[in-house]
Amino acid sequence: MSLILFHSPKGGVGSSFLAAQLAIQLAQRGHQVTAIDFTFQGALKLNFAMLPSQSLANMSRTPGDVTVVNGVELLNGYDLAQERDFREALAAGHAGLFNPEHITIADVASGDREMKSILYDRCDLHICTLMPEAAALATLPLVVPGTATVALRKTAFVLNAIDDTRRLSRDSNRFVRQLLGDALIANVRRDEAVNEALARFEPLTKAAASSPIHGDVARLAVAVEQRLGRAPEAAEDAGDGAPRGTTKR
Ligand SMILES: Nc1ncnc2c1ncn2[C@@H]1O[C@H](COP(=O)(O)OP(=O)(O)OP(=O)(O)O)[C@@H](O)[C@H]1O
Ligand SMILES: [Mg+2]
Question: Residue 30: which CATH number?
């Protein structure tokens, strides 16, 4: 089992978008992947081209239904995570809550400090997404309060929505690279096609097949495999991206 926690102290930086893109990319590279949305707003599914009206299967304490899109098993973890005894079981490290065969990606809201802290202790890799803007970079000391950013061993950073035509973006990139060194595992460029694809409820691969983001996310996936010590598996056809409905696992 490998658990990847997506959480940033600053909201709106593209954490859910990258959680979804990484999940899809890892599935295309042959891994078995589960993505769990622990947020109230439930926006992860939109990044899989699902409609707001389409609901995800709920996470449960025992293996149950899952919704499969783009080769990724998607679950809503928010409802279960509101139960105190579930959070306690997670914090106690109870086995069996996550599929042992899968890479599990957890999308946690920036404001949900408790869930972040529980999953941070359990995860193999924490990915903190940043954007090249003051409000996001100013939260760097809050990634794990009390621990210097450069001393974080489990955390990898992604600088998202970079626009090299803008000076602030170039300067932020230089600053973050100098500060974080190898902990900055990927840069992802800004592309308006991301929002256009969301607005059309289309997968980014279909709405913008030539977007530079695909190459950036592929590099992110390779960096994640290296951090997890997992080689790519035999690649699978992840299909056309349409939701496959709810299946038993
Ligand atoms: N690389 C990118 N290029 C262009 N737009 C992007 C990029 N990454 C994210 N976005 C857009 O930024 C917005 C915020 O993204 P997202 O919802 O993934 O952020 P978040 O950190 O999960 O936010 P929240 O705190 O609300 O959960 C969305 O409209 C998304 O489409
Ligand atoms: Mg989000």
Answer: 3.40.50.300
Cα separation, 23 vs 9, in Å, equals 21
Give residue 91's domain range.
2-230
Kindly state if the Cβ of 73 falls inside 6 Å of ligand 1.
no
Give a yes or no: residue 248 inside a domain.
Answer: no
**Is residue 244, in this structure, part of any structural domain at all?**
no
pTM for the full model?
A: 0.94
Would you say residue 243 lies in a domain? no
Shortest-distance atom of ligand 1 to CA 189: 1
Is residue 132 one of the residues assigned to a domain?
yes
Q: Give 78 Cα–ligand 2 centroid separation in angstroms.
A: 12
Q: Classify 2 as helix, strand or coil.
A: strand
pLDDT, tens digit, 9 for 90 and up, residues 93-128: 887 889 999 999 999 999 999 999 999 999 999 999
Say if CB 26 and CB 206 are below 8 A apart: no
Residue 64 has, within 13 A of its CA and on its CB side, a CA count of 11
Give the distance (Å) from ligand 2 centre to CA of residue 107. 7
Segment 215-230, tens digit of pLDDT: 999 999 999 999 999 9
| Cα of 129 from ligand 2 centre, angstroms | 11
Q: At what angle do helices 212-228 and 15-28 cross, to 10 degrees?
A: 80
* Ligand 1 atom index nearest CA of 160: 1
Is 42 a pocket residue for ligand 1 (Cβ < 6 Å)? no
| Number of compact structural domains in the chain | 1
